[in-house]
Amino acid sequence: MTLSSYSDVFDIRHDLEHPQDIRAGDLVRTGANHFPHFEVLAVHGDKAWVRNVQNGADSLALLVRCRKLDRPALMAAE
Amino acid sequence: MFATGIENSIPKIQNGRIRVDQMESCGHYRHWRRDFDLVTELGLSYLRYGPPLHTTLLGPDKHDWAFADETFGELFDRDIVPIVDLCHFGVPDWIGDFQNPDFPDLFARYAGAFARRFPWVQLYTPVNEMFICAQFSAKYGWWNEQGTTDRTFVTALKHIVKANVLAMQEILQVRPDAIFIQSESSEYFHAENPAAIKPAEIENAKRFLSLDLNYGHRVDSEMYEYLMDNGMTPDEYRFFLGNSLRHHCILGNDYYWTNEHRVSAEGLTRASGEIFGYSEITRQYYARYRLPVMHTETNIAEGPNGDEAVNWLWKEWANVLRVRNDGVPTVGFTWYSLTDQVDWDVGLREQNNRVHPVGLYDLNREIRPVGKSYRQLIRDWGAVLPTQSICLTVPVVPPSEYGERAAARHRKDARHLRAVEMATGDTQQS
Q1: Which end of chain B is less crowded, N or C, counting CB atoms within 10 A of the terminal residue's CB?
Q2: Per-block mean pLDDT, blocks of 10 residues, chain A (78 long)
Q3: Upstream peptide bond of B395 is cis (omega within 30 degrees of 0)
Q4: Angle at CA of residue B115, ends B114 and B117, nearest 5°
Q5: B264 vs chain A: nearest CA distance in angstroms?
Q6: Rounded Cα–Cα distance for residues A46 and A59 (Å)
Q7: Which of A5, A32, A65 sits opposite B310 (nearest CB)?
Q8: What is the ipTM of this complex?
Q9: Does A27 touch chain B (CB under 8 A)?
């Protein structure tokens, strides 16, 4: 049994309509907003092992929510 | 009252070398008009907001009101009700830090000057999170004076709370119907084992100190000894008992994931995560002070699942409803802050320029899932809190109604009541 999300109460969809091809080494965000950003460490099934690039915390993310970031553009912006 | 706030923390860190300015870091100085647009887009009428103290109060009774004039003028035109946060974790360079015994008087005069300049402002949080301000500045060694002893903590605490009380008195001279909404951290300390029960009890008594002093609530004997042993005098303590303005106050309380602690037998504390939650802890604070309550700060970072903050919002709202349905007069809720913050993941102790994704909007002013959720929650529940009792509503006068006859009559009545308070001697300064 998994905990439900209250996103459905507020009619919020997190998943991409057209999932991207995500691979280890990609820099991603898991929502439409600026930050948090994650580095993809590994991919398996429908999940990605991701590491928060700001605080180093590891977690699992749904691949269908991952959006690739343009690493060179990000580095240039920093 | 549904609200949000503009994060305006200004502590000094790293032995006074760096001034943190969250309004700068979060882009508010550049985007303040857009930020006010976002407040309206969310359907909010209340905004926790204040001018930057360190650039507004330039010297004793010397002010630069330029930014405040622009922004508060705009709030007035938009009929957004500010809950004015005058001091958020820092003081101007020339005051030094919270060990300065002149701080209370200097700050009170500033509060009076602000109230005279913006007489249409009714709601105030003179000093934000007094307990946290004293603890982080003068016990944990993180900010400002970076003190680490009980003596520096008690010194900061008595100065901060006295500043708050004197500021309330000055504001009431201008706006006798002013309402003060404290925004104080609501905490709990859990004993790890039976040997930790006594140290946890002491911490659970200390968590009330700022509000005890502010509301003139007698402290217990152990806390009285603690205060006297660490530099407070009996006369200083009696000042607080004799100057209570609790009947002008709403108990605003804040709850974050880090508000509950575990305590070891040696008295060391660590974050425990959420064990009791907002509703249980608020009942404890309400039982002590018996004041109307408003949830004045909460947030959590958006994470890899994208819905962490959405779920936290729902859970906090459920807690507020529970407290309300248990009979605690509950008047408002606040998600803090409007935009993401910077470096709060390390308690502002370092300047890493790390975005802390806790806002209703990100720093590009794009709405987050929690912002969409809050907007919907306000639409769905906006009418619920006020109807708990038609007879008991917060008498807020919106900016647009400040000049109206009914509002002027209300202020005249409040002035008369204030004169009676003063005449009975309850609030005479010692």
Answers
A1: C
A2: 76 89 95 94 96 94 93 62
A3: no
A4: 65
A5: 26
A6: 14
A7: A5
A8: 0.90
A9: no
